[in-house]
Amino acid sequence: MDNTKKTIPPIACTLFVFLLTVIPHANGSPVPVVIWHGMGDSCCNPFSMGHIKKLIQESIQGIYVLSLKIGNSVVEDTINGFFMNVNDQVKIVCDTLANDSKLQQGYNAIGFSQGGQFLRAVAQRCSKPPMLNLISVGGQHQGVYGFPGCVGNQNIVCTLARRMLTNLAYTGFIQNHIVQAQYWHDPLNEAEYRKANVFLADINQENEKNPSYKANMLKLNNFVMVKFLRDSRVEPMESEWFGFYKAGQGKDINTLFETPLYTEDWLGLKEMNNTGRLHFLSLDTGHLQFSESWFINNIIKKFLM
Ligand SMILES: *[C@@H]1O[C@H](CO)[C@@H](O)[C@H](O)[C@H]1NC(C)=O
Ligand SMILES: *[C@@H]1O[C@H](CO)[C@@H](O)[C@H](O)[C@H]1NC(C)=O
Predict the structure, then answer these.
(1) Ligand with an atom nearest the CA of residue 255
(2) What is the pLDDT of residue 226?
(3) What is the per-residue pLDDT for 165?
(4) Residue 286 carries which DSSP code?
(5) Half-sphere CA count of 283, side-chain side, radius 13 A
(6) pLDDT on residue 175
(7) Are 154 and 237 in contact (CB under 8 A)?
(8) What is the mean pLDDT of residues 63-82?
(9) Rounded to the nearest whole angstrom, what is the distance from the C-alpha of residue 65 to the centroid of ligand 1?
(10) The sheet that has 278-283: what strands, in order across it?
């Protein structure tokens, strides 16, 4: 038997964690973090965003963490995650950040699920205060075409659900009142998507190109996208890395690198990739399933310290 395998004594671990927590930032205080929750969640759930906030605060001593709440209460915040125009939500967040004196020197942003693409909209539309790093955990950057739990046209219910949502999603009322319709992306009706989608088509520069969207993305130090390889809630899961179905069908995928958004660099992602600032992380788990140690090692230590 080999008994020489080294184990780190618990005291050393404790010391290591302690050291991590006291390393200050260049300007003396740690860079604040803003987090935006996903659908069905809220700012302050102790098992989700509350837990993430605590994890960050335990890892970086004295850090300011703002978990965004859209509305006046946790209940309103949860409901707004389903029913409020996303452009209005982004506007509220921009104002909130601009009003927050602790964020004026810059902040890092972490969005979970739909919070990922919403914080990207914040980065593109609101350059003050400056966002330094953007981390999208399971965000749907090219939208979704499917119901949670339905992967592909695997059964008639899923197929019908897709068709039905498509017929409804691009009507004005639904576009302005159902959050998920604002990132519904039907590859069989790309023209309709570009014309009628009020949010995602805009931030992805599908129509006229807004030069400030690209300029603002390029101000980021890093844009990190986390994809869950066994995600059954986001269809297609490739959207978490900016991939999507090739136009005209709902099966074959283009990666980000194969889209004009990248090759013609509508958003600066090509320039970011070529300068090592675009990061693709993956986890072999379902939607938003990650361990504390994964989050500490891959997100907190790499991008927040
Ligand atoms: C930001 O501050 C202005 C001026 O004090 C105030 O009118 C506005 O309601 C604030 N907005 C938010 C979202 O806090
Ligand atoms: C993106 O960046 C990576 C790492 O720098 C590089 O290997 C890859 O070729 C780039 N991809 C494209 C399509 O430019």
Answers:
(1) 2
(2) 98
(3) 77
(4) S
(5) 20
(6) 86
(7) no
(8) 94
(9) 19
(10) 65-67, 33-36, 107-112, 131-137, 222-228, 278-283
Q: Which residue is closest in CA terms to ligand 1's atom 1?
A: 99
> Please, which contacts does 156-165 make with residues 24 or more away whose CB atoms are closer than 8 Å?
162/186, 162/250
Query: 252 CA to middle of ligand 2, Å?
Result: 22
- Give the three-class secondary structure for 88: helix
Catalogue the active-site residues: 113, 231, 287
Kindly report the protein residue whose alpha carbon is nearest to atom 12 of ligand 2: 257
* Ligand 1 centroid distance, CA of 72 (Å): 14
Block residue for tokens 């844009």: 223
> pLDDT per residue over 251-300, tens digit each?
999 999 999 999 999 999 999 999 999 999 999 999 999 999 999 999 99
Residue found under tokens 């190109």: 209
Mean pLDDT across 16-24: 42
